[in-house]
Design a protein that fits this description.
The chain has 200 residues and is mainly alpha-helical. It has one domain. It has eight helices and no strands. Helix 2 crosses helix 3, helix 2 packs across helix 4 and helix 5 packs antiparallel against helix 6. It is elongated.
Length: 200
Amino acid sequence: MSNELFSAEVLIALGILAVPTACITYFIYAIAKVKPAARPIVHFPHGVDGWLLVFVATMALSIILTAFSAMNTLSAMNTQGHIYWAAISPAIVTIGLYCYCLWLIARKREAFVVKHTIVILWVVGPISVLLLSLVFGVAVETYAVLRSSVYAMLWTLYFLFSKRVACTYGTKAVDSYVEVALKMAQAQKEQKAKEDASKK
């Protein structure tokens, strides 16, 4: 089993995926770095970095995998002599929404970025999978629904409660973090005053 996981074909495939994913992620990181955070707070993380950059990487990987899947579908339809654009339209919509999401994350510094990102996560993820199954009768594995739901839920929690996201995009959650930052600053000031007093 381990030999299969680390076979030449698997390593080549991982390399093919890793290079464009890293390039897209770095590109988003570079253009996002130019835009200052909406409400930066001292001692609090902000900017497209950390786990937010990991999220960008997962989006980039999803775009690449979706594009590969769409190209394989087109290739298979070409061999049959008929192209049904309806078959690849979900992939086109998915890529478009993910690109829009990455653009928001990189270039905008407003609270609506978080709302739009969360909506896209659920629409492209579990909602679209359930629609394909219930409305269009496409056979969908339970694992696919569970995986997309867990992915959407975990990143939704991150966007709602992350200090980095709050400071970068200026969501309402940043107000509570301002209070924490002020208390931290006051505590540091009192600690310094005690140290100065003890030296006298």
